[in-house]
């Protein structure tokens, strides 16, 4: 339902129904029936409601819109591809006010994620806006949570992803964690900041598959597979990535770069780590591996990797006994240049191997 603020806006819309530029009015969404009218306004309010099973709550916003959540949104449960929520538009201010999108995870979870079992809506949340996206909570995603492909600069802040319930096994998961492939953020994009957010999951906290000028800062990652550049496939470029002042707790590894052994013609460069802290790493502190999907298997050399630096504020990582501190597995000739690792301190566990590369300076383990 759209409540028009001014007669002017009303009469303007009446003339130009379809191609209408957005009007200065407030559109309120309390069910899916309200969406198409509400997005004609540049102020959109989302009340608490349940999206029917098998439908995407899709907001195609007018440029410059402001969206405010007034209540929580749930989704009917159904085995289908999703996404459950999608938002697009340029220069958008989206404020969740701390409200929740509830993915109904336990209905889907079977310990297999995207690798088997029932089809799970993934990603759950597709963010295709520029501007700001803040203060939104996601509870219990079926599988992958956010896919971000912003058309221009976007700052994402103060999000919570709480899939911690998926750490427990359930009747379908054969004793394993029921949640699986619950990546926090999958990003193939440019000009993105993700900050001040908390991610509790069972897979990568952040995975950057391609793109440049991405900053990930002051986030807390709990329970999953750490902060990843990759996995990197063929014909992609990644550059200018800043991983700053994050706190990583009880993950498989803290900081990882993973490139596929069969990838060709790709370049990863300019990865900077500063001020990150990590405790309770189960397998590695730092893992740079060109043999993905294997771990420390036979590396490929089709991804050129350069300029990976730990500089500025100290990165302080502690790994569990049985874990390796830093392992680097390069293909012949594919890791190049000089990497400054002077701001990296890893304790616990045992030293990892650094193979096929001698350019790491100011670091010993
Ligand atoms: C979907 O299933 C989950 C888990 O069983 C449940 O908590 C949630 O209420 C269900 N959602 C709806 C809309 O019924
Ligand atoms: C990098 O991204 C930020 C945030 O999205 C943006 O403000 C900035 O202009 C970008 N820098 C360049 C050089 O494009
Ligand atoms: C270097 O990489 C090649 C494959 O590119 C691998 O076969 C070899 O074992 C590596 N060298 C070492 C010392 O690990």
TrEMBL record:
Residues 1-19 form the signal peptide. It comes from the Eukaryota. GO terms for molecular function: polygalacturonase activity. The keyword Transmembrane does not apply. GO terms for cellular component: extracellular region. Its EC number is 3.2.1.15. GO terms for biological process: cell wall organization; pectin catabolic process. Keywords: Cell wall biogenesis/degradation, Disulfide bond, Glycosidase, Hydrolase, Repeat, Signal. It is an enzyme of class 3 (hydrolase). It holds the Pfam family Glyco_hydro_28. The active site is at 225. PROSITE patterns: POLYGALACTURONASE. It catalyses: (1,4-alpha-D-galacturonosyl)n+m + H2O = (1,4-alpha-D-galacturonosyl)n + (1,4-alpha-D-galacturonosyl)m. Belongs to the glycosyl hydrolase 28 family. This is endo-polygalacturonase.
């Amino acid at each position: 339902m759209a409540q028009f603020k001014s007669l002017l806006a009303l009469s303007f819309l009446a003339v130009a129904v379809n191609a209408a530029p957005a009007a200065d009015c407030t559109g309120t969404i309390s069910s899916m029936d309200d969406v198409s009218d509400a997005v004609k306004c540049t102020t959109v309010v989302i009340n608490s409601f349940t999206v029917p099973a098998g439908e995407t709550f899709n907001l195609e916003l007018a440029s410059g819109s402001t969206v405010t959540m007034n209540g929580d949104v749930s989704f009917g449960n159904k085995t289908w591809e999703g996404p459950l929520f999608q938002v697009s538009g340029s220069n958008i201010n989206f404020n969740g006010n701390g409200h929740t999108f509830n993915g109904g995870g336990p209905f889907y979870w079977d310990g297999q994620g995207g690798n088997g079992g029932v089809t799970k809506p993934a990603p759950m949340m597709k963010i295709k806006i520029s501007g700001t996206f803040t203060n939104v909570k996601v509870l219990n995603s079926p599988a992958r949570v956010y896919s971000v492909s912003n058309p221009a600069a976007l700052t994402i802040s103060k999000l919570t992803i709480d899939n911690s319930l998926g750490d427990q096994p359930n009747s379908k998961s054969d004793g394993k964690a029921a949640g699986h492939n619950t990546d926090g953020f999958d990003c193939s994009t440019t000009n993105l900041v993700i900050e001040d957010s908390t991610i509790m999951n069972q897979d990568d906290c952040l995975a950057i598959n391609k793109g440049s000028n991405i900053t990930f800062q002051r986030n807390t990652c709990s329970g999953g597979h750490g902060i990843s550049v990759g996995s990197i496939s063929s014909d992609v470029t990644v550059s200018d990535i800043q991983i700053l002042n994050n706190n990583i707790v009880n993950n498989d590894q803290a900081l990882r770069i993973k490139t596929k052994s069969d990838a060709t013609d790709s370049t990863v460069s300019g990865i900077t780590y500063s001020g990150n802290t990590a405790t309770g790493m189960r397998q590695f502190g730092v893992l740079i591996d060109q043999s993905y999907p294997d771990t420390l298997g036979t590396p490929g050399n089709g991804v050129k990797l350069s300029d990976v630096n730990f500089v500025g504020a100290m990165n302080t990582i502690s790994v569990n006994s049985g874990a390796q501190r830093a392992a680097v597995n390069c293909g012949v000739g594919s890791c190049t240049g000089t990497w400054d690792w002077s701001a990296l301190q890893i304790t616990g566990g045992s030293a990892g191997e650094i193979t096929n590369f001698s350019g790491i300076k100011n670091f010993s383990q």
